[in-house]
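Subject: for your reference before the review

Hello V.,

The reviewers asked for a structural picture of the protein, and I figured it would be easier to keep everything in one thread rather than splitting it across files. Below is the amino acid sequence we used in the manuscript, unchanged from the supplementary table.
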Amino acid sequence: MQGPLVVAAALASTSAAALALVPFFVVARMATAIYATPPDLDTVRSLALVAALALALRYVLVAGANVLAHVAAFRTLHALRLELAKKLGAVPLSFFSRRSAGELRKTLMDDVNQIEAFIAHHFPDAVAAFVVPIATTIALLGVDWRMALASIAMAPLAVGAMAVAMRGAGTAHQQWNEIQSRTNRSLLEYLRGIQVIKTFGLSAQRFGELSRSIDEGLAWMEGFMRTNGRGYGAFGALIGSSLVVLVPLGGFFYTRRTLSLESLVLFLVLGPQLLMSLMRLMFAWGNVERIEAGNGRIQAILTAPDLERTAGLARPAHDGIAFRGVGFRYEDGGPEVLHDVSFEAPAGKVTALVGPSGAGKTTLVRLVPRLWEAASGAVELGGVDVRTFALDALLSRVSMVFQDVFLFHGTVRDNLRLARPDATDAQIDAACRAARAYDFIQALPQRYDTLLGERGARLSGGEKQRLSIARALLKDAPVLLLDEATAFADPENEARIQEALSELCAGRTVLVVAHRLSTIATADHIVVLEGGRVSDRGTHDELLARCALYQRLWESHTEALDWSLGEADAPAVAKEVA
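And here is what came back from the structure prediction:
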């Protein structure tokens, strides 16, 4: 808890604000000393020294308040971001399917940063802006109650203008947040798809979603200022208009000899400052609703249900996988995409999943490591429901190679050691040689210490895939999940990837998804899926003999292999290329 630091920062800020008023009292006292007959210059010098010391102490307190508030703020941010990161690692993948990357980025960055601004700036300033004017007004009432009331005469009108300016702020901030989330999402999409966008000659202005979200932001800002701008303008004018009342009223009292020169000067220099503090209060007030909305989004993440965990007493008898009456839906209450799926992937054997797009192949594979959670039935590993494993224990038994390889912005070595942080250089070399990745790694500028760039930007698709296989080899888990591992490879890379996969699959339980049926024709067991259900199962020859769907898939595959650019098509294509 950073409460003591925040309180100390608020006290220091309040004391600094109070000391900032000392020079105003000094100036008023100086006026009397200067206009005395003869002028009391000794008093003037003494008062100047008092003012200088007060200002020096004020700057020390301001610095101290800033240090205390920022230490408290950054400690809070550090703890909160770690907690959010830990939480995001604990929730199921279904959590992310309901939130875009732009929305999560805004929460983790912008909403958390707002808390830093509140702790480090708004709260200490607001306390000082509230306490000091009240204390000063009470003190001025003792000097002259008439002028004290005149100093704050515009306050009710200013507060009314502030209420008008803040009218509907909660709804407005919610709308602004939605626009910002859409803009973040569109901007991320624009940056990730920049190659496609350039290919089609588009620009940010012509990329529809990003352009629309920017236009929405501009329209929102214009509408907000039309609705609330007058209130802001009136508020600013009113808090700066104290002298409109103080000058004529003070002059009247002074000429009537009911107000001393010292008091007149005091109210003329100090009175306007009382209402200026309302500006800081309004700024803090204007941020409270936005911070509360952001905190609500942060709490929505922190209170999201975790992936169910157990004590981890599972003792699998083998490394085989079994699906028993498995059903699955992406969202509670949503349509079921897997229906009563049951089959076994025997230990030490290769089991392939085939079927048309949308049949549920990838979803099934991702149920094994609990990236998704079955809605009904059970997924078993070694005869034990995967939900009874400690998650770390389950994941330690499973390696995954998917078609979309993700590499972090680090070195080759860093990305490989994700699988085994304590891996030796010799073990890394052996895994890379087996994955057919060693040669291209040695050709990189710093070999294993070469930075790969964001998402492995320095590597080709085939090279990324071979690094992913090396990572799986380095992990050396008994169960291997493959999802379209050669989907985007060119013929040369595909051959190398197939060689690497042969090394990787040896002696392991393999569950593989493939559209290129020739790559799984020798699988020990093939399961055909259609519409989220098991249509048939058997070997390649058995399925060719009896399964109509498998026959159609195989015929489509062989026709695609035999396809070539025909003579009739060649001139048209050549013309297009030219």
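For the response letter, the relevant points are probably these. Strands lie at 321-329, 336-345, 350-354, 376-381, 384-385, 398-402, 479-483, 509-513, 525-530, 533-538. The chain is about 60% helix and 10% strand.

Happy to draft the paragraph if you're swamped.

O.
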